[in-house]
User: Fold these one by one.
Assistant:
Number 1:
Amino acid sequence: MKQYKIALLPGDGIGPEIMKEAVKVLKLVQERNPVAFELNEVPFGAVAYFATGDAFPEATKLACDQADAVLKGTIGLSHEESKKIPVDKQPERGALLPLRKRLNTYANFRPVYLPKELAHFSPLRPEVVGEGIDLMIIRELVGGLYFGQKERGIKNGKRFVNEMLEYDEDQIRQILIVGFETAKKRRKLLHNIHKSNVLLSSVLWNEILEEVAPSYPEVEVRHMLVDAAATALCLNPCQFDVMVMENMFGDILSDQGGGILGSLGLMPSACMGPNRKAYYEPSHGSAPDIAGQGIANPYSMIGSVAMMLDMSFGLTEEAQNLWGAMKSVFAAGFTTPDLKRGGDKLISTAAFGDKVLEALAKSPKPKV
Ligand code: NAD
Ligand code: IPM
Ligand code: MN
């Protein structure tokens, strides 16, 4: 029996609500497979700040270091509530970015997936969605504009700010390799998303790409400027398979991915570091506008569990069962309110979780 330690970071807003459903799923997976999960729930985000003065307390750092994988909910407060916390201690700068840096999770996988049967969730016309949307955004996660030098001050009597988009060649190469390796396992098509017509960082990025590409002769590379890519995602998302890009570009385009699916609640993610040290989280935020109402869509969180089962624990078949279970709940016409279209039966976060459990329990157990 394999034993895995998982640090659970429910966080703020809808985080604890959707994490509850993830834990229910983990307990069922444990019953169905020769694995034992040791779950260690620790405070992270604004909730941790208000309890301890630190959004990423030492005990949480230790739990993350010791875990085989980290499962995170969502962090962050509304625009107004955020003002109660000093800028540098806010959960984004004080917890999430330090977590990414600490685990060095440089490769963020954000699948944008909508099978044909669920195409009605997309705001795009059926002929645009075609056979379904299935692309993978690979976002560099520990460099670029987010982690460059920053300064704020007064120059010539005016307030000014300077923040740098910094990369060295190794950082670029390692994420491009992830892009090529992922493309190799999928449709062998890699879209390189950049802004080399303006940004020097993209010029270096593309130079490194030319150096890496010859090792992957089977992968076709297509270049697209990031602004054009934003339009192309709406007009013809099916042209894409794997897209690789800088941190900030990936932040923005992956939320657009949620837009073309119909909800950010359909956006799970995996954040991988060296030696497969990883953490998993929904791509979206703490949704303060719906928090506490029990109506958040837990697909993004349960999907993150599926990614963890596959990528951290090698439980690939059970991960497939879990995706299938979630799909079957939607296919039976049940949805949370974010996805409601005429005729759907509205259910709560917890009811969605229960239905996923029912469906998973019915799928054949993976062979040992
Ligand atoms: P958001 O992603 O929280 O919400 C945007 C919209 O999507 C809202 O209308 C929300 O209700 C909806 N939504 C998001 N997830 C949903 C789900 N699972 N089910 C149903 N609807 C869902 O973005 P925001 O409002 O711009 O940010 C809120 C806070 O979250 C901010 O403090 C931000 O910094 C933080 N944030 C955190 C993370 C993270 O933890 N990784 C990611 C993004 C934003
Ligand atoms: C995300 C979020 C974070 C980011 C914020 C909360 C720091 O928007 O994970 O996409 O910008 O990376
Ligand atoms: Mn984001």
Note: The radius of gyration is 20 Å.
Number 2:
Amino acid sequence: MTQENFNEGLLGFLDASPTPFHATQNMAGMFENAGFIKLYEEQRWELEPGKKYYLTRNDSSIIAFTYSGEKNYVMVGAHTDSPNLKVKPNPVIKEHGAVKFGVEPYGGLLLNTWFDRDLSLAGRVSYLDSNNIIKDALIDVKKPIAIIPSLAIHLDDKANQERSINAQSDILPILSTSDDFNFEQFLKEQLKISGVDEVKELYANDLNFYDVQNASFVGLNDDFIASARIDNLISCYVGMLSICSIDESKPMLFIANDHEEVGSSSTSGAGGSFLENTLHRVFDDYEEFVQMIRSSIMISADNAHAIHPNYPSKHDANHAPHINKGSVIKINASQRYASNSKTISRFMNVASSIDEPFQTFVTRSDMGCGSTIGPITATRLGIETLDIGVPTFAMHSIRELCGSKDAYSLYKIIVSFNDS
Ligand code: ZN
């Protein structure tokens, strides 16, 4: 696979995955095409050596793995969720000549980047069908149906010095000037577009707004990729392609969890039992299970902060990654990242063996830093873990920025891991 093919697929995946549900559905489709067999958690498993499998939880987390009986797994972990504005259960507010939706911020989003963008709506809707069975379906409106206009500078002359944003009142997307908008009718129409005709009653939904602008190359030489949800769909894409590229005789596992941006404590988050339950069923003997955990490695892939050319003081000068200069190994003494000298060395060894570059990130000692699913998974399972990621600008903006070379480079390193 060339870098051009790789990036073309990446842009398509970013555009087609406005929610964790869509990301999971798209990855499941990819695994189906690559010959992975679907497993269901509520059924008995009869695994056969030489085959490869995948399963989902809550339609928003996914695991894929090869199965050969060997225990030294290379695991790659990422997350399907990104910060967004989540629709409240009774969202419609009609006032001051406009129809607005009440929203709740999901994750640590940069709120100011959500103003003046063309927004659409997507997610999962649960309903009762004509046979009185509760079902759900994904919807994606696709066209821009909402916008959050800025307040004009004439009405706030301190805007460039001290504008603050109230999450309850200032960031409500405006959908219409027409008073006759009916939310239920709107959802039923969207379900119909998704192929659902028989809706007896609408129950609940998990919907979020997203920016309709497609991912694109930016820069004189297409240096950058600009898109929503680069954190962390780029790592989902790298992990998904990696496990599809390797020979199924090699022990490899890929997991993409939901809810990382809100702390990972959920059934489908890294703090939940999804990975542990799955591995226990693959290795049902406890002795074998522990042997497998202790001879495997988890590569926790999540974006890293590149040094911003306009804000260089925000980085430690000796640990300040550059865009398009390779994967970033993330290190933190307080174990906000799970990398240690052994797992780092293994990564360096693999990258060097195929001449791929790498960099290190340590946050300034007078600043806090983010975290990932790495330390959570390491704590839960006792698996040796490495935190790495693609260098990124504008993390948690509605439009993030990364390099056009780094994800492909990381993919090549991960594919080579099984040979190390
Ligand atoms: Zn992330």
Note: The longest strand covers residues 84-95.
